[in-house]
Amino acid sequence: MSGNLLVIATKLLLMAAVSYTVLLIAGIMTVIIIHVYTVGRVIGRLRSIRNGDHDNGLSSGDVEKLPSLYYKCGEKEASREECPICLESFNLGDICKVLPLCGHVYHARCVDFWLTRSAVCPLCRKNVDPMKQNGDQQRANVD
Q1: How far apart are CA 140 and CA 22, in angstroms?
Q2: Which of 16, 23, 104, 134: CA 20 to 30 A from 85?
Q3: How far apart are CA 95 and CA 82, in angstroms?
Q4: Which GO MF terms does the UniProt record name (predicted)?
Q5: Where are the domains of the chain?
Q6: Is residue 18 within 8 Å of residue 80, measured between CB atoms?
Q7: How many CA atoms lie within 13 A of 101 on its CB side?
Q8: Which parts of the chain fold into alpha helices (H)?
Q9: How far apart, in whole angstroms, are the C-alpha atoms of residue 117 and residue 114?
Q10: Which band of pLDDT confidence, cut at 50, 70 and 90, is reported for residue 56?
Q11: Is residue 66 within 8 Å of residue 100, measured between CB atoms?
Q12: Residue 84 gets which letter from DSSP?
């Protein structure tokens, strides 16, 4: 009887060792695949940055040149607008910025932060960068 138990225990131990080894190899392969995928994405992102294929924001100087105004409430209090970025209502005296090409209005603090990261209007995606606007106009004149 104890011989049968020894055989069964040996088989169970062998099956556990094989299962553990298979799971260990599967876990290591998963980590390797995730690492290769992540490194590939980082290399691709660095390559696009080096080649200039990414959206740069505006410089602080260019952001400061955009027209600013103090918000004045209309006649009806209920018709108050809100900033599309933070979704807070404009209050009397808030410093706001108007984007020149599209005319969209934002809190200055919200749109300044946005434009330092991306040189497009958050709502309509029109380019705000004066250098790129001039290039687009020149291309339109050539066509």
Answers
A1: 62
A2: 134
A3: 13
A4: zinc ion binding
A5: 1-54, 60-142
A6: no
A7: 17
A8: 2-50, 60-65, 108-115, 130-142
A9: 5
A10: confident
A11: yes
A12: T
From the candidate CATH numbers 3.40.50.2000, 3.30.40.10, 3.40.830.10, 3.90.226.10, the one assigned to the domain spanning 60-142 = 3.30.40.10
Q: For 94-128, write each residue's pLDDT tens digit.
A: 899 988 888 888 999 999 888 888 888 988 988 88
Q: Are strands 105-107 and 68-70 parallel, antiparallel or unpaired?
A: unpaired
| Identity of the residue numbered 141 | N
Give the helix ranges, DSSP H, for 51-94.
60-65
Residue 45 CB contacts under 8 Å (≥ 6 apart), including other chains: none
What contacts 24+ positions apart, CB below 8 Å, involve 84-90? 84/122, 84/123, 85/110, 85/111, 85/114, 85/122, 86/110
